[in-house]
Structures are given as C-alpha cells and as structure tokens.
Design goal:
With about 675 residues, this protein is an alpha/beta fold. The chain is built from 12 helices and 36 strands.
Length: about 675
C-alpha cells in the first residue's frame, strides 16, 4: 500500500492526545465514613472495573477514529506490484478503438465496435476532469493527433464509424507512444480496445515503450465463423470479345462450421452471367469456376457475391478487365532481311497486334517502352547499346525472341547472350535434321493441339547452331532435333521471357516459316509476353498501378475516376522501368469500379475491394496474450478481460491502483458511532 499524500501521516502524532487526556484525567474522591462499609467496598471495586473497561474502549475507538481520518487524508492506494506505479498528477491517455470491419462481429453485449466505444466512454468518465485524452482509430486522421478534454473525447467517440482501413497493432502502438512522448505530464497511459485478430494484432513484433503503461483490452466475439470471397483469376491472360472465358474464384471458410450448400453469383456489366454452388469444410477453402462469353468489347466490370452473416464487407469481390487487348510487337530485321517477310505477314493480318518494323541500322529504342514483345530477326551483330536497351526492357516484363543470323558475329552474340543468361552459340551444324520432339511437359503449347500425334509432321532443319548451356543458364528446350540439340527454348530473366532459336529462320536453313507450327508458336510467344493487369486492388492502401504509355509527363496528368460516383482523383505519377506508374496513396476508400483516364481517353479499367486481411476472424485468446507478454518480459503491459466485471474499474486499478480513502472515512464514522454508543449505553 502506498500513499498519494504521505506528509499527512505526521498527523498520526495526534494519537497521543487522547492517551494523555486519559492518563491525567484523575478524579478526587471525598471520604464519607459509615459504620458498616463492607458491601459498599465491594460495590466500589465492581464500579471501578467497569469504568476502567469503558474508558479503555472509548480511548481505543478515539485513537482509531483519529488514525482513520489521518490515513484518509493521506490517500492510501493499493497497487499491483507487477504493473509498476504511477505518480500523482495529471494523466495523458491515448485510447485506440479498433474500427475495422471485423469489429462488426457480435458479442454477448452487441457488435464489438459498439462495445468498444461504450467501454472507452466508461474509461474516460472514470478519469479526472484535468486529464487529457487522445482518441485514435485505424483511419489515422489529423484529428487523432491532438489531445481532447473529457467532454470532447466523449464526442469524438460518438463519431467513430466502421472503416476499411487496416492497421497492425505495432503501427498503432508506435503512433500512440510517439504522440504521448510530447506530453509534459507525469502519467502517460495507452489503452487499446480490439478484437485481437491474429492477422493484424502483431503483438509479438510490436515495440513497447516501457516508460508508458500499456493496457490491452481484447474483445471476444460469440463466434469467429466467416465465409468470404478471397480472390479470382482467369485461366488465360488474354480476354477478347466473343471468346469463352473461364474465371476461377477462391472462397474461404475460416469458421468451425461446415458450409453444405453455398451459392455464388457472377455479375458481369450489371447482368447475371452465372451461378455456382459450393460446399466447404471447416477452416478450409474451395475453388469454383465460372464459364462465360465476353459479349462486350473494351472495359468489362464484374463481381462475385455470396451471402454470409454477420460479416458482410467481404461477401462481394469486384473485378475489371479489358476485352479489347492489343499486343505491341516490335520487329527488328537484320540488314540482309527484307522488311516484308513472314513476320510482317503474320502480325499485320491480325487486329490483335500493333506491329512496328525496324532495320538493325535504324532502331528506335523509344519504341521499346510500349512494346510487349521484341523479335530480333537474324541480326548480324548484337551491339552493346542494343544489349543495354534489352536489359532495361526485361525489367518491365514482356518477351524477347532472338533468331540468329547465318553469318552472325559470334563474339557479339556470346557477350549478349551471356548478359541475358542464355546459352552461347557454338559451331554451325550443316547436317540436315528433322524436328523430333515437342516438350509437352512445358506449358508453352498448352491448348494448341487437340490431341497428341505420335508421328507428327515437324519442321525440317538444314543448318543450326549448337547451344552451349552454362551453370548460370536455366534454359528449357521446347522443340528439339533428332540429335537432341535444341531447336528453340525459353528462359526467364528479370521479369521477361527470353526465347532463343538455334536455327536462322530462312528458307536456306529451315522450312519453319512455311510450316503449320510457325503461326501458333509466335502467337504463344506473343500471348506469353502479356502481363495482364491485376483484376482488382485493395482500397485504403498505396497501390501502384503501372501504365504502358509513351505520353510525356507534360501532357494532361492521368486521373482515376469512379464509374458510378463522384470520386475523381489525380494520383502521384512516377516513371519506373520505362513506364508510368500511378500511386494512389490511399485516396481510394470506397470499393467498386474505376477507370484511368488521360487526355479524355479511357486507358485502363480498375476495380477496388476491401482488404481480405480482416476476413480471417481468428483471434488471440487471453491465455495466448498473457503468455506472449510474459515471454517478452513487459512489466508495463497489462491485459484486461472485458468479461470479468467493470472494465473502467480494472483500468483505474491498473493505472492508479485501488484508492482506500473512502474506506477510511467510513471507518472513522463507524468508530465515532461506536464511541458514542459506549458513552451512552455503558453507565
């Protein structure tokens, strides 16, 4: 037990007053003689004994009354030694109320967010009027960075609404401790009310300021069952009008109950495009598939929706895609090659391709910025400048196809292929060969052949270079020759796919350009170069949206516009890997459909969803949290169970201890009553 005003204990010396009065309170008796005083002597002795007992009891309770009054004015406090002490004076209190969507879950007292707000009000009310309060939520707004009076803090609590923002506990505690460090008050306290989700309540990684008392109040829900739409993706990176699309959807059940007959609905451009049923075991996930036809050219907006209670924010997943894609192809011909050849005939005949044609003597390197695939068709030299640009190109993704020339400069090719981690060209083999084997294990020709023929008519090869792999080369052969040499293969370098032929594609060396395999091969290479943009992004975060756009920054800045709403924002723009990138900086907080526009031109469709990090409702138990706190040795951190009585009383006990001055006032009054009763009743 400690005392808030220990100087008052000097008043205990007043206990000497009733003792002194008792000792010097002698009565003088007058002697009266009687003839027979035997019975009077006996009566006198009995009266003296009773009087002495009465006086001692009165003295005792007078001393107890004085002692109780002195102790009351000294303000005794019982504190938990494990939690450390706090001094007297004003307090600065930072209260965190978790307002994420997982707080929509329900406990015995109601929705968790309402319970948290009610408990925060009780806690604030229990403090003194001179104390100051910071109210902070996941939104990290400007109004959270200042102190409030008790009345203002209660009003701020009333304004707290559910938010899509997701914060880690470590980030919240750091923000609270940084703010309190500027407060010049003797007592600083952090109070956090949350459902303690394991996905966000990263207490193990949190940095605790041991100079500030931290109180954690985990709120327990009745159930942690939640079924939600986690993600979706297409089987192929290319979506076109009139083509059959296959959309895969992942649905997660992190509850303890089995979902026997759930229903998911696919909506595309405001029309229902499909419906699917599913069943999920407890704490597992399942994958369903929708098959539909893209009927609209250009931007398409869709969603997959299920029904679940009581958590609704993750029941619908929005997605967007462009059904009018284009593959930007840049063909660089060797000096000996004609500009009109098999490649130009192939790519110019299909509106899917944006085709540009250059000679190795007049390369426009700026075209690489907007290209998806580069085809180096039989260049005699691979110059150091070209290799440098190719290395830059691999950072932005796409594909590069290298077809050597029959009279290739081996030295320049060796240096270039080594820089790109491709096999080196060695000797020229002039023995006629037949293509012998397609590596069906590779996904390159997936979907090209309806059935596999054992004796398939494959291209003929008259001359080819032998390829020599190195320890740094991860080269996969796709088509091989009878002698086991590679016809062509692929490897990944940075973010790009690199294809290398060992055969110059001309009539002298091979009939490949006239063979039926030529068209699907280069179509597959073109499609593999596409990096389909994400179907959706999370709201309230700083997401990066890359744009392949050769417009300069002096043109109109790109902006993101909400399809059905008034939101229209100009994001931060940066040039990364030869492409413009947009940084949203958390400006988008409402899920739904958006589009990127520039110079009044629609550039890219977008969809935003609430983060699924909050969808996993599994939370830390009280025992788990206590174990972590004990292992970390945090003496300044205390845990309060919201189910064990008044939370505000527990908070005040943890922060200030149990004040006993009222008890001693009551005891003083009780002792006075007993003293008066003794004086009146004992005659």
């Amino acid at each position: 037990m400690t005392f808030a005003s220990p100087l008052f204990l000097w008043a205990l010396t007043a206990l000497a007053l009733p003792i002194v009065i008792h000792l010097f309170n002698f009565r003088r008796y007058k002697k009266v003689y009687f003839t027979n005083v035997k019975f009077l002597k006996e009566l006198q002795q009995e009266s003296k004994s009773r009087s002495r007992l009465k006086e001692l009891l009165v003295l005792l309770f007078r001393c107890l009354t004085i002692a109780a009054l002195v102790l009351a004015f000294s303000q005794p406090v019982i504190k938990d030694e494990k939690s450390g002490g706090t001094g007297a004076g004003k307090s600065a209190v930072s209260i965190y109320v978790d307002n994420s969507y997982s707080m929509d879950n329900v406990s015995k007292q109601g929705p968790l967010l309402q319970v948290a707000k009610a408990q925060a009000k009780d806690i604030i009310t229990a403090f003194n009027n001179a104390d100051r309060f910071q109210i902070i939520t996941n939104d990290f707004e400007g109004k959270h960075q200042r102190f409030h009076t008790k009345e203002d803090a209660l009003n701020v609590l009333e304004e707290i609404k559910p938010s899509s923002a997701v914060r880690l506990l470590g980030d919240v505690l750091k923000r609270q401790s940084d703010f309190l460090s500027s407060a010049h008050v003797p007592n600083k306290k952090i109070i956090a009310l949350s459902d303690a989700q394991k996905s966000t309540f990263n207490i193990e990684a949190a940095t605790i300021d041991t100079a500030i008392k931290t109180i954690l109040i985990p709120l327990a829900a009745n159930q942690v069952n939640n079924v939600y739409v986690d993600s979706c993706w297409f089987e192929t990176p290319l979506q076109q009008k009139g083509f059959i699309q296959k959309l895969h959807v992942k649905i997660v059940n992190n509850g303890s109950s089995v979902i026997e007959a759930g229903t998911a609905r696919l909506t595309l451009n405001k029309e229902q495009a499909g419906i699917a049923s599913f069943s999920i075991e407890a704490n597992s996930n399942t994958e369903i598939k929708f098959t539909f036809e893209s009927k609209l050219e250009g931007f398409n907006y869709g969603s997959v929706k299920i029904d679940d209670y009581p958590i609704h924010f993750d029941d619908e997943l929005f997605f967007a895609f462009n059904a009018e894609p284009h593959v930007n192809i840049t063909l660089i011909n060797g000096a000996a090659q004609k500009s009109e050849n098999s490649f130009s005939s192939l790519f110019r005949s299909d509106s899917l391709f944006y085709f540009r044609n250059f000679s190795e003597l007049t390369i426009d390197y700026s075209s690489f910025k907007t290209s998806d695939i580069l085809v180096l068709n039989q260049l005699r030299d691979l110059s150091s400048g070209l290799v440098a640009e190719l290395l830059k190109f691999t950072a932005q993704g796409g594909a590069i196809v290298i077809i050597p020339a029959l009279d290739a400069n081996r030295d320049s090719y060796s240096q270039a292929l080594a820089a790109l981690q491709l096999p080196a060209l060695t000797e020229l083999d002039s023995v006629p060969q037949k293509s012998d084997k397609i590596e069906y294990a590779s996904s390159f020709y997936k979907g090209v052949f309806e059935k596999v023929e054992e004796r398939m008519n494959l291209p003929l090869v008259n001359k080819h270079f032998k390829l020599q792999k190195t320890s740094h080369t991860d080269f996969e052969t796709i088509l091989s020759l009878q002698n086991g040499d590679s016809f062509f293969g692929v490897t990944r370098f940075n973010n790009a796919r690199l294809y290398l032929f060992s055969v110059p594609l001309n009539e002298t060396c091979s009939n490949f350009t006239k063979h039926a395999l030529f068209v699907p091969t280069f179509y597959q290479m073109s499609f593999s170069s596409l990096q389909a943009p994400p179907l959706f992004y999370p709201v309230s975060l700083n997401v990066i949206i890359p744009l392949k756009n050769d417009l300069s920054l002096t043109d109109q800045a790109p902006h993101i516009r909400q399809i059905e709403g008034e939101a229209d924002m100009i994001p931060e723009v940066r040039v990364i890997n030869n492409a413009l990138s947009l940084y949203t900086r958390g400006q988008i907080s409402v899920p739904g459909y958006y589009e990127v526009m520039r110079n009044n031109v629609r550039i890219l469709p977008l969809a935003f969803n609430y983060s699924r990090k909050e969808s996993d409702l599994r939370s830390y138990t009280k025992d788990e949290l206590e174990k972590i706190i004990a292992e970390k040795g945090w003496r300044s951190v205390r845990l309060i169970d919201d189910t064990s009585g008044s939370v505000s009383a527990q908070v005040m006990f943890e922060t200030e201890g149990k004040k006993l001055w009222k008890l001693f006032i009551i005891l003083a009054l009780l002792f006075i009553v007993i003293e008066v009763s003794l004086l009146r009743l004992l005659k």
